[in-house]
Write a structure and sequence with these properties.
The structure is a homodimer of 121-residue chains. Chain A is mainly α and 121 residues long. Helices cover 51% and strands 10% of the residues of chain A. A two-stranded antiparallel sheet of chain A has the order 1-2. Chains A and B meet through helix 1, helix 2, helix 3, helix 5 and helix 6 of A and helix 1, helix 2, helix 5 and helix 6 of B. Chain A binds a DNA duplex (30 and 30 nucleotides) through helix 3 and helix 4.
Chain lengths: 121, 121
DNA sequence: CCTTCATGCTTACTAATGGTAAGTAACGTA
DNA sequence: TACGTTACTTACCATTAGTAAGCATGAAGG
């Protein structure tokens, strides 16, 4: 279909490619990417070691947890500290941005309880 | 026994598999699944036909747009109406749940502007 | 008439991502 | 000595995403 994208009849300002919309899409997809919300929540609730998080987040695999923590660290939602004990301990915690993000997302719980009651089974 | 503090001694109720946490994860992943936020936003901003949404959401393919609209309809965030003109017109719009969802997610814009300034490039 | 275009999809194919299982180095415990 | 824990990585296959093309219907243009 998209061989010749004809939008000449369409007013350019109605396209969803301006700044706020791209930002919105980008951050929603970051927060909502599979496992991310659960990982951030686990950290918010006190888990701070790899294996704690792995136990807190139901059904996540080590491989994906490691991958997600690396991404979240790069995006600066999570801070990774190496503690030079023997053996080394690695501790993860939310950054301020991460804390604010889960606070912002909290209303989703009420939304879901209202509109998706079957989730409660 | 102190080099490695054992978190498994924490009480079971702190695990992230109880109801509110599962709901939280589930709805965050619904809202944040790739393209969903942008599609809902396009609808909120007035797009209501397939090709309008396709033009509004930058870089989405027809295939994924069709798939996502079907999912969003099943999840009751989007309503699909068939208008029996010739040829038939198909019109999509947000349900009340869908409208509330994008309202809830709106603070993400300010969050991202504050914490992810490089998105603004 | 006959070609061409728009709409709202579907089908076919490839690339990227996800899930499962197992492995690993360095230590600790029984 | 054997096994468990920690924080990962590697190997492999299944599922999903992205790209391109096809298609039925009808409208519009020459």
């Amino acid at each position: 279909m998209k061989a010749v994208p004809n939008q000449s009849l369409r007013n350019e300002s109605s396209r969803i490619d301006d700044e706020a919309c791209r930002i919105f899409q980008h951050s929603a997809e970051l927060a909502g990417k599979k496992w991310n919300a659960a990982i951030l929540l686990a950290l918010a609730r006190g888990a701070n070691r790899f294996s704690d998080i792995a136990h807190s987040v139901d059904r996540i695999s080590d491989r994906l947890l490691a991958a997600r923590l690396r991404e979240l660290e790069q995006r600066r939602l999570v801070v990774r500290e190496v503690i030079p004990t023997t053996p080394v301990q690695i501790r993860y915690r939310l950054s301020t941005a991460g804390e604010e993000l889960i606070r912002i997302l909290h209303p989703l719980v009420q939304w879901a309880e209202r509109w998706e009651p079957r989730l409660k089974d």
